[in-house]
């Protein structure tokens, strides 16, 4: 289980900003989101989209617990 | 050193006065105020989204690097989040240093990094609808100017 946050265009695409999703790893979470919403699943692995686990950028795999916060960050706009 | 994300308007003059006050060793304070543009009437409102906790940390790292590189006495970054109307101040950066060159360069670099690399997502809403904005090619090349270590330091 993890608390998932979406930002920017990803939030518009999915139609939600925050959701709790059953998953014990980052790859499992991606698969769960893909199953729920194939368009979102595709966008999450799109160019320039980064994943942050508990506010640290992660490339590759990470274990998740119920308290883990996972954010998907599309390319940043800058200020 | 201070980094603030704020959802309401701010007064750049008041920030500059407060930042400048009480300094005895800083010979130079350079500040920059960025305003939201109407883009020829195509933007009614800018909506700026940050990732609370993550965005501040990223900007703080930029500020810390600038303090070290330019030998600053102090730096302040204040950035708006949420809806911002054209003409309103969106960002304020101030750098204090012993001498002016370092203060100018630090403010310049911080703004280049903020405009291209700070974790914000910016949407422009206008008569033609809403669109997400990405850094321009110019924003990116401006920021890249600072990626080489300074030959003077």
Outline the secondary-structure elements.
The complex is a heterodimer of chains A (79) and B (153).
Chain A: E1 2-6, H1 8-14, E2 18-21, H2 26-36, H3 38-44, E3 50-53, E4 56-58, E5 69-73
Parallel strand pairs in A: 1-5
Antiparallel strand pairs in A: 1-2, 3-4, 3-5
Helix pairs in contact in A: 2-3
Chain B: E1 2-6, H1 12-20, E2 28-35, E3 45-50, H2 54-70, E4 72-80, E5 82-84, E6 89-97, H3 100-117, E7 120-126, E8 129-133, H4 137-144
Parallel strand pairs in B: 1-4
Antiparallel strand pairs in B: 2-6, 3-5, 3-7, 4-6, 7-8
Helix pairs in contact in B: 2-3, 3-4
Detailed description of the structure:
The complex is a heterodimer of chains A (about 80) and B (about 150). Chain A is of the alpha+beta class and about 80 residues long. Chain A has one domain (about 1-75): Ubiquitin-like (UB roll) (Roll), CATH 3.10.20. Chain A is built from 3 helices and 5 strands, in the order E-H-E-H-H-E-E-E. Chain A has a 5-stranded mixed sheet with strand order 2-1-5-3-4. In chain A, helix 2 runs antiparallel to helix 3 (about 40-45). The longest helix of chain A has 11 residues, at about 25-35. Chain B has about 150 residues and is of the alpha+beta class. Chain B has one domain: Alpha-Beta Complex (Aldehyde Oxidoreductase, domain 3). Chain B has helices at about 10-20, 55-70, 100-115, 135-145; strands at about 1-5, 30-35, 45-50, 70-80, 80-85, 90-95, 120-125, 130-135. The mean pLDDT of chain B is about 95. The interface between A and B is medium-sized, with 15 and 25 residues.
